Amino acid sequence: MKRKREINRLTDEDRAFMASLYESHKKTMYYAALQACRNPHLANDLMQDCLVNLINNISTLRKLDCCKIDAYIVVAIRRLYLNYAKKERRTTLLPIDEPLIAAVADEKIAEIELEKEAAKQTVKDLLDRLSPRDQLILQSKYILGLNEEEIAAAVGCKPSSVRTLICRARERAKAIGLNSEKGDEKGNG
Fold first, then answer.
1. Final residue of a domain: which of 36, 66, 91?
2. Residue 152: which residues within 8 A CB-CB, separation 6 or more?
């Protein structure tokens, strides 16, 4: 309704000026609107609202040269979007792009899975470099989840010695891991 009133009060000269202004600056308007809101439909709405605002300031626009008109339009679009966003925040939350969120979540899950696989491979490589007894102790404890009595039976020692054996096997694995990291640094450096 407001738009119709504003357009109806224009003279033919004003309409011709606004038509030429729109034709020569429509790409700038659309780009500024799209950059502000990142939504093509909202960008078109912002362009239309901006034109109504520009009609209200037609006397100011006539005094400006081409470059200053571009800047004026960009500022007008940005302010319109800020007012729109402020109004939307007061009434509802801004719409969420659910497919984008799902894609980001899927990407994050895939990244986590790759990290898990890399960690598993690192542990497997590390276990392969340990003695068979240390491998048995660590696999029994951390992979199979056996208790101390079951580990003692598998290794052939007293249950009271299992904690010490696990601790020593972990220390040897840590030492091997640290040595391989130092070797990697020397090879890369």
1. 91
2. 158, 159, 161, 162
Q: Give the pLDDT confidence score for residue 151 in this predicted structure.
A: 92
User: What is the spatial distance between Cα 136 and Cα 114, in angstroms, rounded to a whole number?
Assistant: 26
Q: Could you tell me the CATH number of the domain that includes residue 38?
A: 1.10.1740
Query: CA 61, 64, 69: angle at the middle one, nearest 5?
Result: 70
Q: How many domains does the chain divide into?
A: 2
Q: What tokens appear for 36 in the block?
A: 């502000």
Question: For residue 67, how far is the Cα from the chain centroid?
Answer: 35
156: Cβ–Cβ under 8 A, 6 or more apart, which residues? none
pLDDT of residue 20: 85
Confirm if 105 and 57 have CB atoms less than 8 A apart: no
Considering the domain architecture, whether residues 46 and 111 belong to the same structural domain is answered as no
- For the segment 3-58, what is each residue's pLDDT rounded down to a tens digit? 555 556 678 888 888 888 888 888 888 888 888 888 888 888 888 888 888 888 88
Task: Name, in order, each residue with C-beta under 8 angstroms of 87's C-beta and a sequence gap of 6 or more.
Answer: none
Instruction: Give the pair of three-digit tokens for residue 69.
Output: 């008109």
